[in-house]
Amino acid sequence: QVQLVESGGGSVQPGGSLRLSCVATGFNFNDYGMNWVRQAPGKGFEWVSSINRGGDGILYANAVKGRFTISRDDAKNTVYLQMKRLKVEDTAVYYCSKSSSQHFCSGTGCYADRGQGTQVTVSS
Predict the structure, then answer these.
(1) Following DSSP, what letter does each residue of 86-101 receive, concatenated?
(2) What CA–CA distance (Å, rounded) separates 21 from 44?
(3) What is the pLDDT, as a whole number, of residue 86?
(4) CA-CA-CA-CA torsion for 9, 62, 53, 31, nearest 10 degrees?
(5) Which residues, 6 or more positions from 62, have their beta carbon under 8 angstroms from its beta carbon?
(6) For residue 38, what is the enclosing H or E element?
């Protein structure tokens, strides 16, 4: 049974930083791509970033490129999202999700297998 547990969210001022973590259990973490998606209040899911098996392939949404960094530690079954220079529009519930394969997610597969989420609030 896939289990994904996110942590690290919180409230910060614009320009601040947060580091999200997601611990995975119930599957062979090393074999799958992993992703971060977010959902702002009243909006649908928005893909944020993906990292493939092995971590040598990474993608970012244009909205976060240059500010967010995704990484993975296969020894700890954990995927991270380092977020810097946060903006008010980054406010959302952030979820990690498991790809269906070693590659990046696509479409609804980006949030089908996701955790319970962690709230990130950016406000002054």
Answers:
(1) --GGG-EEEEEEE-SS
(2) 22
(3) 98
(4) 60
(5) none
(6) strand 34-39
pLDDT digits (tens, 9 = 90+) for 20-47: 999 999 999 999 999 999 999 999 999 9
Are the CB atoms for 13 and 120 separated by under 8 Å? Answer: no
Token pair listed for 5: 């547990």
- Contact in structure between 28 and 91 (CB atoms under 8 Å): no
The answer to whether 13 and 80 have CB atoms below 8 angstroms apart is no
Q: Is the dihedral of CA 25, 26, 32, 33 positive or negative?
A: negative
114: closest CA among 15, 20, 11? Answer: 20
Q: How far apart are CA 70 and CA 76, in angstroms?
A: 15
